[in-house]
Amino acid sequence: MYWKRTDEKDKEKVHWQQQVKQTNVDEGGNPKWNEVLEFDLESSTGGKFTLDELQQTKAEIVISLFDNHVYKTFQDGQEVR
């Protein structure tokens, strides 16, 4: 019995100001995302950010990459389910 990696599925997830967005899943060993993730921008006063507020904000942007490898089990050359 042996395991063989048969697929790879990747995605990115972005957190900013209690908002979470994620890309579509891309398959393969060299994924490329050409997506725009849009976030609602609200200042601490609840209105629109001014240029000064944007330049002084300490809000963190967290980008996570998820790399999911799919393995299948084989025995005597046949896939075991």
Short description:
By secondary structure, this protein is mainly beta. The chain has one helix at 51-56, and strands at residues 2-16, 19-22, 26-27, 61-75, 78-80.
Instruction: Compute the number of strand runs.
Output: 5
Q: Percent helix among the residues? A: under 10%
Largest sheet: 5 strands, antiparallel
Number of domains: 1
Note the quaternary state here.
Answer: single chain
Helix- and strand-based class? Answer: mainly beta
Can you put this structure into words, describing what you see?
The chain is rod-shaped and about 65 Å long. It has 81 residues and is mainly beta. It has one helix at residues 51-56, and strands spanning 2-16, 19-22, 26-27, 61-75, 78-80. The protein has one domain. Strands 1, 2, 3, 4 and 5 form a five-stranded antiparallel β-sheet that branches.
Q: What's the SSE blueprint?
A:
Layout: E1 2-16, E2 19-22, E3 26-27, H1 51-56, E4 61-75, E5 78-80
Any key phrases for this structure?
mainly beta, 81 residues, rod-shaped, single chain, 5 strands
